[in-house]
Inverse folding.
């Protein structure tokens, strides 16, 4: 027992109780493992993308059980190695499966800093640096939208950003809803395309609007919202005596990567006085490119925009901005609860910097910082170069698909999504009846299973509208090269030609 | 130009375009800085808790502007040093300002791994390890609630967890609300205490319930919900022909750290068939302690529980579980949108492991993993020891406050919150009229300003109900010792005795 020990409830209160040096050593050891096993191998195409294990088998390999007593470092380090070994390498140049990929070292370094500092971004007092970097990056993003001014907040995902937009729109329509709720409100209707992200339905359900009150607007054969159909849906809602309040256009749809015609949609929103939201979670990053920003022509007319730098810009999950054109404090009025223990008005500094009450969260991560660090390190031109290259690679892949026997490009890519079928030789001369489509719909899942078990690459698939299962291939990372595009097609042929 | 270069749109597509070794070097350099400047100094009381700068001054020091061209490493490394220098050291043993603090090395190491792996936890296919560790930790947490079975999901914060509970409760009451929304629903009313977290109001606003439909139940002088008052409020709602649907009790209130009487509240919920939610975001960690888990007696009867291991258990922001007693798939039925591109049903593995559709998010961080790693490393007994010690230190602080002239303990602490006034000598013989309280309310803010500018410690303050500004002191970290408690009181006296 220590000298002069003070005991309360049998607990010695003198001095710290943990051995920091042991913990520090553990951090160093884990860091070395992850650098060697992961970061230095991130772009090595000789590594597997994944080391597939069935769930029940992986449970055993990981030793998931937690015990009353802690485990020794040696065992924990082995566990960390296994965690890395059996995780999907989303930074691998051949991970084409999702709308995120790759590894940006500047963002990663920034994330290590924020993890070690463990800030919560609600007040300037506890998070001075991260309040200011968030403000700076929001301002910069707003500049790229073409707005003169605006407001914004980083949220835990594009889905949540879309929810913010819905809530802002209805608050703008009727501020009383915040206090009174929807039970005495008329039936509110929102509009989005049938190609929108599924979070629009989740938003409608969660916010009490109801999924039936999302009116889905038809798209053209490229997956773009048809403005005349939007007008028709608005008329339909009005005829039903419902109240239209929001249109959500999509810039970069999830499956096709299509961009809605924002300018035409803005005209309709203006005419009907509807809130104009753009879900640019995926496609917003095209704004960084002089060549591709035309895909979002008209975005300067939006009332709000969701844009996720963790997707195309590789800022790391989660990094999602909700940007709002209003600069009168709408975001705060709509979401604030004015907690007196956190947002005291008698602080000794300018409490305008206490931005937390704009958020639906209380604790909030410093997600903006990593993107600020990346952009600072690479400059606008560095980010632009990445976008241009990813989209050039996509075009290369599409052109190769068109050249190859047994491949069918389903849509000319507009962004980084390439959607295509691989048709194994045995299918090529079959009659395209119901039996064909039933059998053919198994081709992509089977090839997917084989690539997962081999660990050679990951490409997603899905059925969509009238098309049975097809591959959706996404290019993001600057580590990806033309050789990887050729590999994808060769590998699909290798894995699927016997089907 | 490289050999056999393929050009598309003027972009060379061969080989990767970035120099990984330069990026890797940057990660190594930043890591070394943060270990030396932050992690190794985390528990050093000779360091400042914060290096205060006014916002305008800090903007200049940080060089926030982003340019067209990237900045050199040398400059970026200096910037990282400044970010660390001017950030609040939330791991400092004298950071008592929020409901989180300290540094757990196991969690930190785990966070470095997840940042480098950059997973998104929605499908087993892309996130096998993190799906399984989330499942394992949820199961373990459910065990500590005393439930035989249950379900759950990690969310981006206690506020969002509370929103989940509200949505589940109304879905249970009437599943049609998901499709139809609230406009044709009766007026739904939820109940919580006047000491609840402000997120309950945010939840009511965001979910379309309306803040007026949160009926606040009176608390006793310890800040605990009075069951008879809850019964009265429910009767009031029924008389108004509104529909009660949810009671949210609080285990560990934000300011006082009070625990509502769960068993009595459960009786009332049962009687009226109301969803019983417990916001144990702060206090849930007492469940780890044999000594203190009685504070949450009755929690096994809850329908849902919010519990944030990032608070008392130091898992790092964000780490927040929403636990649900229902095991019939309610969480998924309530929140799912069944995106066919993500949650394909024709996958080659058991798609029950694709848990993402339980969430309102799409991309979702692997927040559960760091907690799993910590718990694995420390064992239940290690976590219990921390809780017991933090609460023993709190009791020590309270007893010292009672002994000292000029300090007034406002409530006997029930958890880790100690609320007290410091009364400078010049106030001690003043008559306690309006003038006294007006002047006295400036004492805590002035001392706070002085401690921030000195950087010696951080303790929060707020007015609350009939009490003008008082300090709220929180103990969490095992790095904190009895000496730090003595320091807090000495330092407040030093900073405030001339007021």
């Amino acid at each position: 027992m220590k000298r002069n020990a003070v005991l309360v409830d049998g607990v010695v209160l003198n001095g710290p109780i943990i051995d920091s040096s042991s913990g520090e050593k553990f951090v160093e050891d884990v860091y070395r493992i992850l650098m060697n096993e992961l970061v230095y191998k991130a772009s090595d195409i000789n590594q597997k993308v994944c080391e597939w294990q069935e769930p029940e088998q992986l449970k055993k390999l990981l030793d998931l059980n937690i015990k009353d007593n802690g485990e020794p470092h040696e065992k924990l380090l082995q566990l960390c190695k296994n965690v890395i070994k059996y995780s999907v390498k989303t930074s691998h140049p051949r991970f084409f499966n999702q709308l995120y990929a790759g590894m940006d070292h500047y963002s990663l370094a920034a994330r290590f800093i924020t993890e070690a500092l463990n800030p919560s971004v609600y007040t300037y007092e506890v998070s001075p640096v991260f309040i200011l970097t968030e403000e700076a990056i929001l301002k910069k993003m707003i500049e790229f939208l073409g707005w003169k001014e605006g407001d914004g907040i980083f949220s835990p995902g594009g889905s949540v950003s879309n929810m913010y937009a819905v809530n802002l729109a209805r608050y703008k329509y009727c501020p009383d809803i915040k206090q009174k709720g929807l039970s005495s409100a008329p039936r509110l209707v929102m509009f989005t395309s049938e190609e929108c992200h599924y979070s629009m339905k989740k938003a409608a359900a969660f916010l009490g609007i109801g999924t039936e009150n999302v009116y889905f607007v038809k798209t053209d054969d490229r997956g773009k919202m048809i403005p005349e159909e939007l007008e028709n849906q608005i008329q339909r809602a009005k005829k039903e005596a419902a109240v239209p309040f929001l249109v959500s256009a999509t810039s970069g749809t999830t499956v096709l990567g299509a961009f809605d015609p924002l300018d035409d949609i803005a005209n309709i929103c203006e005419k009907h006085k509807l809130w104009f939201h753009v879900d640019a979670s995926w496609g917003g990053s095209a704004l960084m490119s002089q060549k591709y920003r035309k895909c979002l022509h008209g975005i300067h007319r939006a009332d709000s925009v969701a844009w996720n730098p963790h997707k195309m810009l590789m800022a790391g999950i989660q990094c999602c901005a909700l940007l709002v054109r209003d600069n009168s404090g709408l975001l705060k009025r709509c979401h604030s609860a004015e907690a007196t223990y956190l947002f005291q008005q008698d602080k000794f500094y300018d409490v305008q910097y206490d931005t937390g009450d704009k958020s639906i969260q209380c604790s909030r991560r410093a997600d903006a910082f990593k993107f600020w660090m990346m952009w600072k390190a690479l400059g606008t031109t560095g980010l632009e170069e990445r976008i241009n290259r990813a989209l050039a690679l996509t075009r290369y892949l599409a052109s190769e698909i068109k050249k190859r026997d047994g491949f069918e490009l389903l849509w000319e890519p507009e962004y980084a999504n390439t959607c295509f079928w691989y048709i194994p030789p045995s299918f090529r001369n079959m009659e395209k009846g119901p039996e064909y489509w039933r059998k053919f719909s198994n081709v992509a899942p089977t090839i997917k299973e084989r690539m997962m078990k081999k660990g050679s690459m990951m490409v997603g698939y899905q059925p969509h509208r009238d098309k049975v299962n097809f591959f959706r291939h996404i290019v993001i990372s600057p580590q990806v090269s033309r050789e990887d595009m050729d590999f994808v097609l060769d590998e699909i042929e290798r894995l699927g030609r016997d089907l």
